[in-house]
Queue: 3 jobs
Job 1
Amino acid sequence: MTAEQKDPGLQPERTLLSWVRTNMVVAAVAILLFKVSGQSESIILRLNAVLLLSCALLCWYYSKKRFSEFYRRVVVVSRVEVMIKKLFSLVIFVTAMLYGILSVMRFFTQG
């Protein structure tokens, strides 16, 4: 094996599988938010579920595209990838905060 034919090992496959698991969980949470928003008639939760589901689908498409290249690039993690990961984390954080705030508001208005 020459220096140009460096074997990446199983790291790309493990990373792809972690992205798949994350996207599946986020899509499941989005579907649960749709159900909760239907019961509570909250448009904010419904919009948040749409945002979360679209983000999961975009990240699924991106990870499928990225890992089909199988690390041909010199830079393993580019700035665009870091930005996508930060955006994905921000969407998950906003979802958690919105649901928490709406739950607290519902608790105080009903109690």
Note: The CA atoms of residues 16 and 63 lie 7 Å apart.
Job 2
Amino acid sequence: MQTIFDYIQDEQRGFQEYPVNEADAAVFSMIVYLDLAPIVGSDFSAIGAIALQDLLTRATDSQLRGWPGTGDEQAMADCLAALKASHRFSPVRITAFTEDYSSEHNKQFGAMSVLLPDGTTLVAFRGTDLSFAGWQEDLDMGVKYAIPSQEHALEYLEQVAGAIDDPLVVCGHSKGGNICEYAAVMSDEDTFERITDIYDFDGPAFFEEPSERMHSDPYRAKLHKFVPDSSVVGLLFEDRDDYVVVNSEAPAIKSHTPFSWELSEDGFVPVDQLKKGSVYVGRT
């Protein structure tokens, strides 16, 4: 079965020849979990952006280990090793790697901007890490209209959009998928028009929908939500039916991260339906 690792290792076309797609967005949604802020810095700078290959070379082992909850640590290590040698990924540049934690406000936020060689800027948002603030914020998602990370994501996206004129792609995994959707749907009209794609990888939906724009044709055309066939997290509060169910070898919660999702030349491999346990959780 082909996975993200095989894609990183085998895909040799550059972004000018083969534009950013769901597999690329999934890769960057995992990279944003790494502790790279001390190397990259939080200010958006096209001039000061660091090439991914250089970044991975300079980072320490502890910085590259990332959050264990991204799934299989060995899978992460294998993917990072492949990224260092990748003709496709090594020229991309990273900037504005931002983290913000607040136990007082139950806030755990992370984001980075990726400058792609074809002139697109991809914004990746981090999901929940192991911090107490992160888990508290997850609980708040079930009872509050807006959480601090959603509001910070909107601010971050509009700051990036104000600094450049590039087309934009936004993505995130788990809570990162939720806040990438929030930032996109709540963004100002100019920023929203420049967003070409929104990639949500098994992110929960909203306790209360933040905007009627979610039901608009332009938003639906940009949104690509993927959940594994054993999804739990991605079906929370979800009443839409236009997400893609992806085949995964991993059972239940271990299928949450895209490392185990089957990938083909056409993208993630869809299946006809969710497993029964996922459907039940999604309807509670």
Note: The chain has a mean pLDDT of 87.
Job 3
Amino acid sequence: MSATATKTAPTYLREARIAAGYASRDTASIEVPYSPETIGRHERGDVPVAPEDAMVYARSYGRSDILIRYCADCPVGRATGKQVTDRDLPFATLRLTQRLRKAAKDIAATLEEIADDGIVDEGERPVFNTALASLEELGETITDIVLFAAAHGIEKARPANAEASLQTHQYSITDVPPCQSRNIREEAR
């Protein structure tokens, strides 16, 4: 299986290029280490965008949301049902608040009861699956806000101790697509 994501016209690449101030692929190729032709092939979906390409575009255009969008359509993202939806901040925040309340009220108690014996038996499976679906919705809602922040250049500052740990391992979380960042974060601890 290919490590690249086959995309049909990933519009987010063209939109990010234009938002970064590069009206043409020629001007973008000054910052992006690809030829205008390669940039065009990626933007049209003629050539698959590899994870490394997504990272190059994100750095070159100053748009970390490219990584989130890429991972939603990479083979892993598609297999896990990862979705990315652009939402206005007020709507995304209201949606998150409602889902957090539901999760705190219903899901936590349900999961605690199921996890008591460490086994999900056949009788608990439907309730567990419902709780899992709610958690997946919550994850998508959190991604809405992360996507908004990334698309608007809002970055969360790292705690001081995280910076020292990252320097020791010479990793940068922003250099890794979100679908791979969990493993890097675990290694950095």
Note: The first helix runs from residue 11 to 19.
